[in-house]
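Escalated from tier 1: adenosine-5'-triphosphate holo job.
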Amino acid sequence: MLEVRNIQTYYGNIQALKNVSLTINEGEIVTLIGANGAGKSTTLMSICGVTPPRHGEIVFRGQPIQNLSAEKIVSLGICQVPEGRHIFPQMSVLENLEMGAYMRNDKAAIKSDIDYVFERFPILEQRRQQAGGTLSGGEQQMLAISRALLARPSLLLLDEPSLGLAPLIIKQIFEIVKKINVESNTTVFLVEQNANQALKIAHRGYVMENGAITLEDKAENLLSNEDVKKAYLGM
Ligand code: ATP
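Tier 2 regenerated the structure:
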């Protein structure tokens, strides 16, 4: 579905990504783990066109996308939930969800998609008229994921959904990501520092260090890899 080939991304003169290559197959959950500053967010932002790579290629369903605008990339079916969520704080939960569907005009389907996310996240339905900015961190993360789903992405990019959340909420969010992957056939690329939880729901994973991929394997193999355990799983 997506192939990232030898991308190099820079912030001015600073090279953040050094020949990063990875593959995401249709239907998978793939996770990218790594320490602070390894380049995980930059990888996501390179894919969705926010910080385009200076060199290399990104191919989505056969089409090179590395030179397309972020808006065009969204219209192809790639949708990002950025780190920090970025929901609209003054708008209600429902209005935030409607914003997610701004490129669509199939009203009946939008309504049924809103019902779908309310089923998955009942707390959002209870708070449908509440201003987004007054939700808890976990609820805001649920809203950010739901809003992205309203764009009906075929590839959902999640940047550290667990950031700053309590363990129980993290578990709940990851379970729902898994459900969404299965039920709505949404392929997921999950960037996480919480390697343990991310690898538990993923099919495959990549490890990133200093702007380069250092390891890739099935998620279950990474979970039992001694180096990964020591460096990222605190064992
Ligand atoms: P974290 O888990 O802390 O979010 P990360 O793995 O997502 O880290 P990135 O945010 O991609 O890492 O950062 C990779 C490198 O690029 C870091 O050295 C960072 O300081 C640098 N960087 C990121 N954003 C910018 C920016 N806007 N300007 C300059 N350098 C940046």
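Residues 167-183 form the longest helix (17 residues).
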